[in-house]
């Protein structure tokens, strides 16, 4: 488990935490908080610390005391009234998961304090599970709180929205992100700035990129994309996809084509590929905006298919998308 001190270093999230705790202390806290955040932004840390604060017997203005029995149990990951639900890899959160927690919530608190349910990735609920949760949100038990975390890109049932208090967890600005990353031991280099930009300022994704050497990998991949464009041969790019998880490469392609489309439309700010400006500007001179838009749409459809269609050979989806790029964008 984490401590409140760790959240104070996430300076882009801490003001939201302060507003939530202040609302509870003023008697205006809501029993169900819907926390929308980009992935890899620290939302899990945020929810854990807020859960401990809600359970703490001697909570202070902005932090749990850290010493009471509730805090000790929480920090040792053994609090009987804290329920953390998340989907297993490749699966949804089932109605059985929700029913099990609802059954436990119907009983008295084992510690005679609050009960907190943290659902990480609430968008992973099956329809039946979402409906079961909805009934509990409509008729909450006393001193029971729900922390529902979801990614900003996912849609939820309107009925769940209507029964929750919505809080948006922002991304850091450039100064906040660079400061935090240097505190984690990463030197302030051009590579760090590129990694930040290519990850849309998501701090934990940036750390992963730096550790995995993704800045160099992205450059090599996009060079192959240029060879693919020149040769109109899918074998110049297909072998360079990590076919067990090609989403990362598709994200790199999407950012490159989006910047190219912006350049074709005369928009020169907000680019994700500033370090590849020469390549972007060259492609702008060779393909019209409509073709660039078609290419961007193909890449996005490939990603959607890969994320939503189970049991299909991913290599076939990628190959089909690259063939469409040749026929509809490069040659069409």
TrEMBL record:
<keyword id="KW-0808">Transferase</keyword>
<dbReference type="InterPro" id="IPR004622">
    <property type="entry name" value="DNA_pol_HolB"/>
</dbReference>
<dbReference type="InterPro" id="IPR027417">
    <property type="entry name" value="P-loop_NTPase"/>
</dbReference>
<feature type="domain" description="DNA polymerase III delta subunit C-terminal">
    <location>
        <begin position="215"/>
        <end position="325"/>
    </location>
</feature>
<keyword id="KW-0239">DNA-directed DNA polymerase</keyword>
<keyword id="KW-0548">Nucleotidyltransferase</keyword>
<dbReference type="InterPro" id="IPR050238">
    <property type="entry name" value="DNA_Rep/Repair_Clamp_Loader"/>
</dbReference>
<dbReference type="Pfam" id="PF09115">
    <property type="entry name" value="DNApol3-delta_C"/>
</dbReference>
<protein>
    <recommendedName>
        <fullName>DNA polymerase III subunit delta'</fullName>
        <ecNumber>2.7.7.7</ecNumber>
    </recommendedName>
</protein>
<dbReference type="InterPro" id="IPR008921">
    <property type="entry name" value="DNA_pol3_clamp-load_cplx_C"/>
</dbReference>
<dbReference type="InterPro" id="IPR015199">
    <property type="entry name" value="DNA_pol_III_delta_C"/>
</dbReference>
<dbReference type="Pfam" id="PF13177">
    <property type="entry name" value="DNA_pol3_delta2"/>
</dbReference>
<keyword id="KW-0235">DNA replication</keyword>
<dbReference type="GO" id="GO:0003887">
    <property type="term" value="F:DNA-directed DNA polymerase activity"/>
</dbReference>
């Amino acid at each position: 488990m984490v401590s409140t001190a760790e959240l104070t270093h996430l300076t882009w999230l801490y003001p939201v935490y302060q507003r939530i705790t202040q609302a509870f202390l003023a008697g205006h806290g809501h029993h169900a908080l819907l926390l929308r955040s980009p992935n890899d932004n620290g939302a899990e840390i945020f929810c854990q610390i807020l859960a401990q604060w809600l359970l703490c017997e001697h909570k202070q203005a902005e932090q749990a005391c850290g010493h009471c029995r509730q805090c000790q149990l929480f920090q040792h990951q053994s609090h009987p009234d804290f329920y953390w639900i998340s989907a297993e890899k490749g699966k949804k959160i089932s109605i059985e998961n929700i029913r099990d927690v609802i059954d436990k919530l119907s009983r008295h608190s084992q510690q005679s304090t609050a009960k907190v349910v943290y659902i990480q990735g609430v968008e992973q609920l099956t329809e039946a599970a979402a409906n079961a949760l909805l009934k509990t949100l409509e008729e909450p038990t006393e001193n029971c709180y729900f922390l529902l975390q979801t990614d900003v890109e996912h849609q939820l049932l309107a009925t769940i929205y209507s029964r929750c208090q919505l809080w948006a967890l922002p991304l850091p600005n450039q100064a906040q992100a660079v400061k935090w990353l240097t505190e984690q031991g990463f030197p302030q280099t051009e590579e760090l700035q590129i990694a930040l930009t290519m990850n849309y300022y998501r701090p934990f994704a940036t750390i992963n990129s730096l550790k995995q050497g993704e800045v160099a990998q992205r450059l090599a991949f996009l060079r192959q994309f240029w060879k693919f464009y020149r040769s109109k041969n899918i074998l110049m790019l297909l072998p360079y996809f990590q076919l067990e998880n090609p989403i990362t490469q598709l994200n790199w392609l999407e950012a490159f084509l989006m910047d190219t489309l912006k350049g074709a439309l005369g928009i020169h700010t907000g680019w994700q590929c500033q370090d590849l400006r020469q390549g972007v500007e060259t492609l702008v001179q060779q393909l019209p905006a409509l073709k660039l838009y078609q290419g961007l749409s193909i890449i996005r459809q490939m990603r959607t298919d890969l994320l939503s269609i189970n049991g299909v050979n991913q290599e076939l989806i990628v190959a089909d998308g690259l063939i469409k790029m040749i026929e509809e964008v490069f040659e069409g």
